[in-house]
Amino acid sequence: GAVVSQHPSRVICKSGTSVKIECRSLDFQATTMFWYRQFPKKSLMLMATSNEGSKATYEQGVEKDKFLINHASLTLSTLTVTSAHPEDSSFYICSARDLGTGNNEQFFGPGTRLTVL
Amino acid sequence: LAKTTQPISMDSYEGQEVNITCSHNNIATNDYITWYQQFPSQGPRFIIQGYKTKVTNEVASLFIPADRKSSTLSLPRVSLSDTAVYYCLVGAYSSASKIIFGSGTRLSIRP
Predict the structure, then answer these.
(1) CB-CB under 8 Å, B99 with A34
(2) Could you tell me the CA-to-CA distances from B102 to B1, B36, B105 in Å, in that order?
(3) Nearest Cβ partner of A104 from B43, B49, B103?
C-alpha cells in the first residue's frame, strides 16, 4: 500500500521554541492531508485539513496561528508548532488518501512524539 | 459526519474469534465503513473497508447489515499481537472528506 512518512519521529524542545513536523506521501500524490493530535490513551483528534496550494482548514478550537500548516507540494505538508509549551506535548499524526487505489483507504504516518520541556 | 459508537474495551483469549460491533445510526448514503488498528506510539493501520453486506480479506471480515446502521469487525483466531485499539470510521470517498475518530475499542488478548 501507499506509504506516508513523518519526520522527525520524536522531538524534545524547550518551552517557547518552534518545532516543524514534516509529512510526506512517498509514492503517491496527495492534494489533501490531515493532521491529528493524540494524547495518551485517547483517540486521535483531527486538528486541520491541509490543502495543497491553499490555506489549511482548522477544526474548531485549534489555533491556526499556533499550529501553522503549509502544503507546498503534492507530496509534502508541514505542521509547525509555534512557541511550544508543555501542554503541546503530544503524539502528532498525519494522513493522506491515495485516490489512485480506487478505494477509500486513508494512509497514516508513523507519528511524531513531541515533548516540550 | 456520522458518529460512531463502539465498546470502550474488550478482552479475549488467544485462538478465539473476536467480534467488535460499531453503531453508526446516521450513516449517509455515500459513506463507507472503515476499520483501523492502532498499536501504542504508531499511526493507525488500515484493516478493512466495506459499503454493504460482507467483506473479507486475509486478516478480518466485516459484516454490514442491510440498513448499514451498524457493522461488525470479526477477527478470526486472535493472537497476543492483536492487542491494540480498533477504530470504526465512517466517511465518504473523497480526498477532502475528513474522518473523525471515535473513542475506539481497546482489545486485550490474553494467553
Answers:
(1) yes
(2) 11, 11, 9
(3) B49
